[in-house]
Write a structure and sequence with these properties.
The protein has helices at residues 9-26, 41-94, 98-103, 117-134, 139-144, and strands at residues 31-34, 37-40, 176-177, 188-189. It has 190 residues and is mainly α. β1 (31-34) and β2 form a beta hairpin. It starts with 8 loop residues before the first helix and ends with a strand.
């Protein structure tokens, strides 16, 4: 078994199983000295089996955790908006009654701290710069803005040329589309 963490659990489990089966086949009554400790085949197999059991327990726990997290997300998606609405309702109902809100585990809303003169000046300068950068104007200024159109040529539309009458034995004529209808609409004549 390597010391890198890139091995998957399945690979590690397969390696451990191979070590156990190899020890049991090749050294059924073997004695080993690893480090400064003496081991028998039975104690090595027991140690390897404890590692396999621990890996399987982690895999089971991770699968259970995934199911639990999915259930938590589903419950949060369903109940979260209800909790938020309830908190808002309680805050609106009891306002600044700290004792009553404390019964629900809530605190009254804090009043916003008043801005200093420097903060107000900075906010005003930032708002003006943003308005100038975006090119936004007031209602009165927008009303004063008009467009100028120059060089318009008006071309009168005359009636379409008359279609000669079809003889009795001839095939029917296709429909004629006229261009005097508004854009997107067509009129047909036969």
């Amino acid at each position: 078994m390597s010391n890198t963490t890139s091995n998957s659990k399945a690979t590690v489990l397969a390696q451990l199983q191979a070590l156990i089966s190899g020890l049991q086949k090749q050294f059924p009554n073997g004695n080993f000295t690893l480090g400064n400790t003496a081991y028998t085949t039975v104690t090595l197999v027991a140690a390897l089996m404890s590692l396999i059991n621990a890996i399987n327990a982690v895999t089971t726990a991770q699968a259970s955790a995934k199911v639990a997290v999915a259930a938590l997300r589903a419950a949060t998606a369903q109940v979260g908006p209800i909790v938020l609405a309830l908190k808002r309702n309680l805050l609106a109902t009891f306002g600044n009654a700290a004792d009553t809100l404390a019964l629900f585990g809530l605190e009254p809303r804090k009043a916003p701290a008043p801005l200093t003169v420097e903060e107000k000046a900075a906010a005003k300068a930032k708002a003006e710069a943003t308005r100038k950068a975006r090119g936004t104007t007031s209602k009165k200024q927008k009303l004063a803005v008009t467009g100028n159109v120059t060089g318009v040529n008006v071309i009168p539309i005359t009636a379409p040329p008359a279609v000669p009458a079809a003889p009795q034995n001839a095939e029917p004529t296709p429909a004629v589309v006229t261009s005097s209808a508004p854009l997107g609409q067509t009129t047909t004549t036969k």
